[in-house]
Description:
globular, 16 helices, 13 strands, seven-stranded parallel beta sheet, alpha/beta
Amino acid sequence: MNNSDLIYIQQKIVPEILQTMVLRYDLLSYIKAHQPIGRRNLANELSLGERQVRNEIEFFTKQGFVIVERQGIHLSDNGEEILTKLREVIYQYKNFENLAERLRVKLGVRKVFIIPGDSEKNKTILEFMGKTAANYMESILKSYSVIAVTGGSSVAAVARNTPEVHYPHVTVFPARGGIGKSHSIQANSIVSMIGNKLGAQQEMLHLPDNIDKEILEVLKESLEIKEVFNKFENIDVLIQGIGRADVMANWRHFSQNSMDILKDKNAIAETFGHFLDIDGQIICPSSSIGINIEQYLKIPNVIAIAGGKSKAKAIMASCKVRKDLVLVTDESAAMEIINI
């Protein structure tokens, strides 16, 4: 009997098995993301009854998956291990392999990885996405690869989960300038983290993303900046986040008039400063620092990472620009895209 037959029989004989596994996956992953956490907060955040949560925590404690202390509940080492394995089991039970293929065909991309859950509600799901993207990146690296990364929380998750290996001749550098105020998700910070994990060479781009073009032309004469820009033609691996147009316009401090124009033109996504409609057409050209669209389209391996229902249309628009990218997303975004 193969796994598919076993799953089919279990679902017929014990139909509540998947519901129970998903509940326990949600609880364990939420505990991991917010530990230490109390039962009441768990119940409120996951919209569950306190008695139900108490029963599940008692079960987890007996199994050695969690440790309950005065300051709250946190995962044990056994809990960390079972959470990873439970994610793989749910993937099979929900037939995510079929869902990933459906999504790949709909978007027309090279490959799709789907992580169970919703990364907008649970930070642990984003970490699982980051680990999947990082493992894929490591699997395609060559001895002299040139890696470029954008900023953002999703790409930062890739950096946190990059395996510690040794690629002394690999180079990592930013694909664009800095945006926003959070230092930890800036491209330079992500370059440093990935570079250290890979034991690779690092280049930095100490420029804001929305710098004036005339000032940029002067700065490009700097040897340090020129060297980074020259490497744009040699990128063979790009890791990019996918931004919603409204969020990215806000980060870039657009005026209200500019925001209204984007809304009137039905801007959905932002890629390297270009604002796109649902068909992937550029409706507002770039004024950003870094890779341009022509260079972007020449990169052999593009790994895009984004999740959450609110990112569904932005993912669709971005995939129209690059049909051969590899997408890492979550269940929430995948189901929303399939249903659109």
